[in-house]
Amino acid sequence: MVVTATDYLRSLQALLPQGLAWTREDDANLTLLLLAFADEFARVDARAMALVDEADPRTTFELLADWERVAGLPDSCVVVEQNIAQRRAALVARLTTVGGQTAAYLVALAAANGYTITISEYDFLFDVTDLVDALVYGYPWQFAFKVQSALLGVFELSVSDGVSDALATWSNTGIECIINRYKPAHTLAVFTYI
After folding, report:
1. With 0-12 CB in 10 A as exposed, 13-18 as middle and 19+ as buried, what is 34?
2. For residues 34 and 26, is the Cβ–Cβ distance under 8 A?
3. Which of the chain's ends, N or C, has fewer CB atoms near its CB within 10 Å?
């Protein structure tokens, strides 16, 4: 609700005592003095109402940088410049996201950030009943999962690279950062690219 200077003026005039010295005429000096006070009260009231909007991360503008600092944003996994609406959405997501440990949660998180991935788990262990040519997965592999996504960059060895550098590396650093940040701490994500 917006309280105007006229509203404050009428309130101030209502507080005046009764009598001829306390005139309420529009052109009286006392009314002009009270109008000056009323203008300032209305300005302070408008700023207070704006502060209510700034207290909500969904509507903040002036305090967006402070909100982001408190929430640990901008996110180092985000590699593109964001506009105000995207920054607000990231802030609200950071403050309200519950999280999860399932593959479905990680796939949905990747989709929310613009990546399409599939996740498969190494949920079987090698034992004596398996065929001889079966893959040998030991105990640690039950905590690993494979993330398959699109390949965004291939970096090949150049003449200025050292002899110990790889001949080629490939990655999708955005999705690797997101998955490694939100995966359960005891797990290992193995990234493959198509």
Report:
1. buried
2. no
3. N
